Amino acid sequence: MESFNIIEKLHSISEAQSIIMKSNIRYSIKMEEVKVEESIGKVAAEDVRSPMDIPPVDRSVLDGYAARWIDLSVASEESPVRLGIAGSIPIDSGDAPELKPGEAYEVATGSPIPRGADVVVPVEYTRRLGDVIEVYRPFPGGYGVSVRGEDLREGEVILNKGDIISEWHIGVLASVGISRVTVWRPIRAALYATGLELIEPGEPWRPGKVYSSTTRAVYSYFISRNVKPEYLGILPDDVDVIESALRDALSKYDIVVTTGGTSVGRKDATIRALHGLADDIVHGLALTPGRPGAFAIVDGKLVIALSGMPVAAISELIAIWDPVYRRLLGREKPWEPVVEARMRSRFTSHPGMVNVVRSQTCYSGGFIYTTPLRVTGSGILSTLIRANSLFIVPEELTGIEEGDLVEVRLTGYPGRC
Considering the entire predicted model, what is its pTM? Predict the structure, then answer.
């Protein structure tokens, strides 16, 4: 019987990343300018700094009366302080007047604070008597006042190069008058599944068939990274068919991604096709899950051959593609929030392998904890929805003890333990 084994060695994760970065990838990621309201989900191509202070002037954060705290220092229910009302300052006032001792100005939420005022007395703690108010309690300096630049200073970074732009970024950008931002144009990715056993979701299931779920997970993963994928369907386990499809896709897209056919069996045709096309290829990763993944350069373009198992495919993207892609965009740290969490159980890692571990993270008593989920079985789909976090164990470690601290990437909301 014919044997087929072309994984000559397992490449370390750093080695695989380095080979890809040093390869002669022909395409370059381009910048484009878009309206700020159309930038959601795109990746910032440059730092964006605030052109102004926010708030631009000292202003009131409540309805009441602007005054001097020293004038109110002896106020009480039994002996209220009386202040003369010098006038009213509307929200859209462009010039705040000067406050004199013993006076107060009526203000609304958002009104500029008169010069010399350092406190806003809530209206509910006053009584108005014509052109005079009585104040029934003292207030510390700064109460009810939002000072100029308290939220943002002129020149402060709003958006860092490499950030994925959220609705919160857009709100802040618009609040300082920015109408357009420069972003990276999305990479266009062709996405194929391989395997005669696959059928598309929506088709009736029948024995011997498996729904093509890995491509859907990969598709969604790319969307979240501002990559524009196009799913092109299922290819049979035929080297010639796969090779022809790859050549066609490489002529039209920036990168090509496949799922399945990356192991060392006789039916793993994706790898056979890649070896017939590639200028450079990395096949076999020191990664758990994700050992059989491959990355190749064909005619100056990147081909990513992922495992057909969903957890392994996402693990390969997290460990290899994500860091390379972030560097191309000028970002080093992960896009997910990273927190330090204490291990709730022991984790044993595979020696010499990088482990991508799905986990459940929670908080209790001011501390954050994480529990590794099942780490064997690259097709265990339930961990993808049960996990709200992940952590990466480097190849030099053989395990993490219960109680140890680890850096956890949050992929969901950590609830109470």
Answer: 0.82
